[in-house]
């Protein structure tokens, strides 16, 4: 899959000393193996403001405070955005690897420690990886949208919660169905496959180092290997909202109701 190539590019781009620091902090917070770092980069002194921000980013991004944002900017200046991108990579790529291992999808991960570590991680993430995931089409659009909205709620992304994808709406998505996501276990409208997907979303977000065997079995029962990979990567693509939430840049596009958008064949978001 081309998208796994993009994912491995992200894993290789540790971008120096701050990248090395936050990868270690995020992985330790999650209880997962850290991504490799640039062997030429000396491990930096652990700036308390960066460490605190990275820990909260991994535990619950919605609880990052304005004071923590200010301390991060004081510590890093104009490098703060790049550091948060690195936090996202160090936080979520290990979740993806743990998720695919839990559901039994074999993926050959290259040794990224031997790869080129220079480059613009934000460019690879936003212009390479995220559109590549959005181009995947093995999942039905309503399931993809249900998964997106669950992640939006869990990370409390105001922007994401204010949007509705039109292909999913045309395929049967509705506000009454989406209202059931919050208490999906009791829903009579969501399918058993969609409930299995939502359990997996919650596991990747809240307990990635301890994905319950029943949750993994539900994914295997209802989804093919190709769909399980797309589902896992969808959770990561949607979780890109953690960057906006962390920096308080997730303002909704509309003040009331929701706004439709199309995820086109190129994997880009198109507004009317």
Automatic annotation (TrEMBL):
<protein>
    <submittedName>
        <fullName>Carboxymuconolactone decarboxylase family protein</fullName>
    </submittedName>
</protein>
<dbReference type="InterPro" id="IPR029032">
    <property type="entry name" value="AhpD-like"/>
</dbReference>
């Amino acid at each position: 899959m081309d998208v796994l190539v993009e994912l491995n590019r992200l894993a290789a781009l540790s971008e120096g000393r701050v990248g090395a620091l936050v990868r270690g902090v995020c992985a330790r917070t999650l209880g997962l193996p850290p991504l490799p770092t640039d062997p030429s980069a000396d491990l930096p002194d652990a700036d308390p403001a960066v460490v605190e921000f990275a820990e909260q980013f991994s535990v619950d991004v919605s609880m990052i405070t304005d004071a923590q944002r200010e301390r991060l900017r004081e510590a890093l200046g104009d490098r703060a955005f790049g550091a948060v991108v690195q936090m996202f990579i160090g936080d979520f790529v290990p979740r993806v690897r743990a998720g695919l291992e839990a559901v039994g999808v074999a993926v050959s991960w290259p040794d990224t420690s031997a790869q080129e570590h220079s480059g613009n991680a934000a460019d690879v993430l936003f212009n390479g990886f995220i559109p590549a995931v959005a181009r995947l089409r093995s999942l039905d659009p309503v399931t993809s949208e249900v998964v997106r909205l669950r992640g939006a709620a869990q990370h409390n992304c105001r922007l994401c919660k204010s949007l509705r994808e039109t292909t999913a709406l045309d395929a049967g998505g509705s506000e009454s169905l989406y209202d059931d996501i919050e208490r999906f276990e009791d829903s009579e409208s969501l399918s058993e496959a969609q409930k299995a997907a939502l359990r997996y979303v919650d596991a990747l977000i809240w307990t990635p180092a301890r994905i319950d065997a029943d949750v993994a079995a539900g994914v295997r029962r209802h989804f093919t290997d190709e769909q399980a990979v797309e589902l896992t990567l969808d959770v990561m693509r949607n979780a890109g909202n953690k960057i906006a939430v962390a920096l308080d840049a997730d303002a909704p596009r509309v003040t009331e109701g929701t706004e439709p958008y199309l995820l086109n064949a190129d994997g880009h978001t198109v507004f009317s």
